[in-house]
Amino acid sequence: MKPILEVSHLSKKYGSFTAVNDISFQLQRNRCIALLGTNGAGKTTTMKMIYAAASITRGRITVDGFDVKKSPSNTKRALGIVSQEDLLDGSLTVYENMIAHGLCYDIPKRELKKRTQNLLTFAGLANYDDKQISDLSGGMRRRLVLARALLNHPKVIILDEPTTGLDIQSRHVIWKKLDQLKSEGVSLLLTSHYMDEVQRLADQVLIIHRGKILASGAPDTLPAKYGYQSLEEAFLALTDFHEEDDHIVQALS
């Protein structure tokens, strides 16, 4: 089966600095790939190139068969974005935030209202449609961002730290919603610093360090593949945790 997302020999440079260095991977339909790496490893930069928010220095990305460089509008229509910052408009209600976002996709008004109502129900926010954003808890805000990302019926959802700062109950609610989306044929590309989240959601894990993919595999088999006992141990060892930790200790002493 042809992958819904294909990243081939992708690189990104900012002057002399290489943020992403020749990475390749494929995401199949109704699957989840997690990009696991420290801050600055290149995860968010990779995602931004996929949804055309950052230019590509070298390489190729296709989404649903469309080349990101040649057809950015078509690729954006196949994507839903859940970024680290929710970017919700505090001057609008929950319902109005959904409508305003949907207008960016030229969805007919009647259809947009129907999708908004259905997605607010899906996210457990149907009774909060007239609430201001400031009235929502952190978990509700993240569920609203997820609902908003689904308005254009995306085939791939980009999830950049989707549950950061949430309590465990809110995280489980988000996870169940993502499981439901996968069962309906949606593919997920995830970044997270939570090992339990990666193990819970991902079918494949890519450990990225300094812009390169160092390890790849299913979360339950990757550790043994590279000679480690757990995913956390593999991640810490492969990303030079001890060397960086010594540097931090010296700086604080």
UniProtKB/TrEMBL annotation:
Domain ABC transporter: 5-235
Database matches in Gene3D superfamilies: P-loop containing nucleotide triphosphate hydrolases (3.40.50.300)
Record field: transmembrane: none
One annotated GO molecular function: ATP hydrolysis activity
Keywords: ATP-binding, Nucleotide-binding, Transport
Matches recorded under InterPro entries: AAA+_ATPase, ABC_transporter-like_ATP-bd, ABC_transporter-like_CS, ABC_transporter_ATP-binding, P-loop_NTPase
Pfam family, one: ABC_tran
PROSITE patterns per record: ABC_TRANSPORTER_1, ABC_TRANSPORTER_2
Family (UniProt): Belongs to the ABC transporter superfamily.
Protein name: ABC transporter, ATP-binding protein
